[in-house]
Amino acid sequence: MSEATSEQAKATSEQARHDYDKAASGYAGYSELPSGQLEAELVRIALGDCTGCTVLDLGGGMGRHARTALQLGATAVDLVDISAGMMHAGQQQYGVEFDATARLRFWQADVAQPLDHLPLRKEGYDIVMANWVFSFAGSTQALHAMLANVRRHLKPGGRFVGVRDADPWSPVLQTGKYGGLCRDISPIPGGVRYVCVLQSTPPVEFVGTCLEVVYSGSTAVYEQFGLSEVATVPYTSAPVVQRDPAFWSEFLQRPCLAVVTARGSIRL
To answer: Which residues contact 52 (CB under 8 A, 6 or more apart)?
Structure first.
C-alpha cells in the first residue's frame, strides 16, 4: 500500500470513527426503521442455526447482530469495532446480560488493519460477520485488508455473513420511504463517496465510501479471498416483506442493501 493510499485509508477510518461515535446515542433507532427491520431479518436468516458456534463480528457496533447470533445458539461472540462510543452504547443497552457470562466481548480496533494484537481465537471462528464494513473501504487496498481479516479468522468451511451496499443510486434512497437517504454522491477511484442519513430519532448521519466491486454484487472479490458459494439472501424470505409485499415493491425493484453469505474454502 502506497503512503498516499495508507493515509487515505486512515482518514476514511477516522471519519467512520468520528461519525459513529457521534451517532452512538441514537443509533438504536435504526432497528425501528423499515430498512433496519429488513436487515435484521435477513441477517437472522443468513446466520441460521448457530448452535455451538463461535462468531467474530467485524464492525459489529452496538452488538445488534451479535445478540442475534447468541439467541440462535452461538456459544461466544467477539465483536470488533472502531467506535468506542457505539460499543459503549451497546453495552449499556444490553446491560449485564452478556458481560456476566463473557459470551460477548467487545474490542476496539480498525477492521481495515491487522487484528493480531487482539486476543481473538487462534483456531478461528465458525462464523465471521462483516456487516456494512465494506461501506468504508474507499480503496481496493482497504477492501482487501478487510477481506484478509475475514479469511484470516474464518475456519475452513466456516460461514461468512455480510451486509453490503447494493445500489447507492436507488430511488428509495432519494425518497427515504424505508428510512434511509443517500445524498452528495460523488465519484472516487473505482467507486463512490456519499452521505447516508438514517431517519431515526434523532437522525443519524455518516459518510460512506464504497467500491463498485462491492455494490455491483460481483462475487469475484470474495472468491479472491477464499470464499465460495457466495450468494445473496432472497429479500422475499424476510417475514417483513412477506407480510406486506406491496409496501416493499419499490425496494424490490432496486434494492439498496443486500445480505451476502459464503463459505470459507481455501487458505491463500
So the answer is: 73, 74, 75, 126
Q: What is the DSSP letter of 251?
A: H
Give the separation between CA 235 and CA 109, rounded to whole angstroms: 32
Reference 142, options 208, 93, 74; nearest CA is 208
Alpha helix locations (H) across 33-168? 34-47, 64-71, 84-94, 96-99, 140-153
pLDDT-derived band at 234, boundaries 50, 70, 90: very high
- Enter the C-alpha cell of residue 263: 463459505
Give all domains of the chain, ordered by start, each with its CATH number.
3-165+213-263 (3.40.50.150)
pTM of the model: 0.91
Closest alpha carbon to 223 in 160, 139, 141:
160
| Matching residue, cell 406491496 | 246
CA–CA separation, 219 vs 2, rounded Å?
A: 26
**What are the two backbone dihedrals, phi and then psi, of residue 265, each rounded to the nearest 5 degrees?**
-120, -75
